[in-house]
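Entry 12.
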Amino acid sequence: MEFIIGQVKKRKELFKFLISGSLATAVDFFFVYLFFDILGIKIIVSAALAFLFAFFASFYLQKYWTFRDGSKSKMKKQMLQFFVLGLAGLVVNAFGMHILVEVLHVWYVFSLFLVVGGLAAVNFFVYKFVIFKKEHRALKKKILLSEDGGKKINLLIATGIYPPSSGGPATYAKYLKETLPQFGYRVKVVTYGNPEHQEKDLYIVNQKRNKILRYLDFFYYVWKLVLWADLVYVQGPVSEGLPSYLACRLRRKKYILKVVGDYAWEQSGRFSNTDLLDEFLTKKYSWPIELMRCIQKRVAAGAVLVITPSQYLKKVVSTWGIDPEKIKVIYNAVNPRQVAKIIKPQNEVWLVSNARLVVWKGLDTLIKLMPDFWEINENVKLKIIGAGPEKEKLEAELKKLKTHKQGHVKLLGQIPNSEALGFMKAADLFILNSGYEGLPHVVLECFHLGTPVMASASGGNPEIVLPERSGELFTYNNSEEIKRKIINFLQTGERHDAWLESEEGKKFMKQFDFSEMINNLRKEIEKICAS
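Predicted 3D structure (tokens):
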């Protein structure tokens, strides 16, 4: 008996049982009113129709919400049992009231309390231990030992983008889907995209639908698949995070959340915000921004674990009110494989930057500094890779340069990744003048490609650009400091990345290895699933 009471308290099933019953009663009253008072249907027919609606409402609430029974095979049998129990309850209710009121002369209100209370108690235990009885098996969590002693886990990945869409999160999700099965995992993915793209265990929500409908579709897929999954790995706090949060809460499933940036801040530019992230975290804004901020905080708070790709982002998430103990840093892996061969003329010096064309990337500052560099070497050229809303402003800056020098600065646009890597490899110096970076993959790619790096001391940059060891840092958008350091490079050719070839440097780079990333992620997943 103590075990049963403990289970009731643990799952709060009794509370849900009572709420479900109350909701079903409300449904009954509503449809009687609708059919009889509004539509003018006879009371007997109205009562019968209302009973059917209330029956189905009660059945589905008790099955899926109260007792969390997601089985499909027993549905017809359960529905019949539920219906028979309901009819039996009507008979017992009528007979019990007759005995108590007419025979024993008990006050009818107290009699009703006894009969209804007794029936509710009986119904609860019949629902729990007969109709919606769960199979208590040792393997209920579906965590099975594989031949190599590892664990088999059903992992559902909820991501906003997936190949053929480009971007780090898309590549990351694809890599997990292809790699984790090697360790005994079963992986399924829910994403937004083009439904025409077919791939096994990939569930695609049409990204062209209305935003609300997209969210509902995403919620539906997660709601359906979460019964299969041991754990859900959500790749963002809002577009994929909010639907996953709701589905997991209703199904009482655990999920982990990966945060690669502050979504509210990233979207705040649509509402004319120009503050950088560090300042954004300390201020209040208009209600649409605060709503996005509230959503991402709630989704992060509901996760059993939050994963960030840098210590800087861990600090950002902790400012949301999330316990730092619940935030784990797992660095992303970078290993540029397909690198196009780009030929650079020997007499030219290439400065390359690869960034989204947004205001906080400071690309206009680099363009404005080019005349100072031409005084040192007229063959210095600037190659900017990327697309974004600042393109027109950057083109306007180009037109301010002397006509014969405008060709020395190129906006290459969004080019294939292999070509972008080719330009970065051919560069004499890679520059990242950014006011915000979670953890810059482009810098890690330069380390692999052997290209020297200068970057702003913002966000996660200082975690990987170590002065005099892996590169050079400067103050974000400080024109004089940037100019001085680049001119020194042009005059001396002095690099600051030799340390990367040392044993200590190689050990440092191992943090960003694919095997290291997968092993660290597996440890966290398996720890959660085993708890």
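Annotation: Residues 1-10, 135-150 have pLDDT under 50 and may be disordered. The two ends are 25 Å apart (CA to CA).
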